[in-house]
Amino acid sequence: MPQLLNEKARIVANEKVGPRLHLMRLESPQIASSVKPGQFVHMKVPAAESHVLRRPFSVYASDVDRGAVEILYQEVGSLTRIMPSIAEGDVEMIGPVGNTWAGPERFKEGSCTRALVVGGGVGAAPLFMLTEQLIGAGCATDVVLGAQTKDALVTLGRYTQLLGSEPAVATDDGSYGHAGFCTALVEERLREGSLADGGAYDYLAVCGPEPLMRIVASIAADAGVPCQVSMEKRMACGVGACLSCVVDTTSGKKRSCVDGPIFDANEVVW
Question: Who contacts 11 (Cβ-Cβ below 8 Å, separation ≥6)?
């Protein structure tokens, strides 16, 4: 388990970026300098005194030079519906929590030549730092993004800038890109590839709604591609003590907060 920091961070921006979607930027120098792709922070949300427990939020991006981290969150429950009203101020955070995407560290030097990253909805955010890492390691990386509507594709611009071209996109309502689920694009990429040489993928990472991850994991298994998933569960303590975020695996029950949230897809009992 990585060393946890308890840091008082300052919210410097909290803006709406899409339908029920918001981007929060926090000055958090210690966490910014230590967080790795796939990890999250456990936040004590201000203006929510009735919510005693902290809440987990995946880290979207980290700016070490400025000592800042960003989280992308969606209004879902009573707590996240409060968050857009929070002005600039201090917030307590524990982090970085959890393990990380394996990425290029999983392979011997030079053996990860091609990767596929699949993000559904806000699940695209926890994959962004991984994509930066893969590209930085010289691994040719393709990205597939899925969302309900065009307006919900709030990570598209940043991924396009990072990749130098627009990733493959699907929207449920057909308002942008492929009409339908992004799983069709995943099948297409694994079957045909998007590089000129049609090389096979060495690695696939997916984050999003659990049904999406289950389907993508099955597609990857059929194609013989190693796959990792981010099993984001409801959490109470965030440090492995309460057992409220267990994931059923082939090795028994594991805790998403400390044994995960990243798991090998073939380990998860769906």
Answer: 24, 25, 26, 86, 87, 88, 89, 90, 91
